[in-house]
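Why does residue order matter? Because the sequence determines the fold. Keep that principle in mind as you read this record.
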Amino acid sequence: IMSSEKKGPLQSVQVFGRKKNATAVAHCKRGNGLTKVNGRPLELVEPATLRFKLLEPILLLGKDKFAGVDIRVRVKGGGHVSQVYAIRQAISKSLVAYYQKYVDEASKKEIKDILALHNKGLLVADPRRKESKKFGGP
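Structure:
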């Protein structure tokens, strides 16, 4: 008999964010406000110039919304910039999904509206892809 079963069900959601070839999978569970990307805190993610982009969902919603959850993000593929965009999308979507599943519909709607008003890219993937190279030409 497992001893971890007594704590109640593990509340977690898994959501992905995409940009070009970069895919970020965010695992959001009940916790105490940790947000990590590939095992390192958000403040250490390179490139430093785009760090503000990563913190956007947190700054928009306020730290109190993130206080009750731990978000761990795995990201691979793509370049530095598209990885950053994929990460911020995964973080935003995972928080919305978590609130929908374990909190209530009203607070989920509030979060979703704030994010969508600021930038639709935080919740909806950008469908543009690189066009394949053609032969020939001038």
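The CA atoms of residues 61 and 138 lie 52 Å apart.
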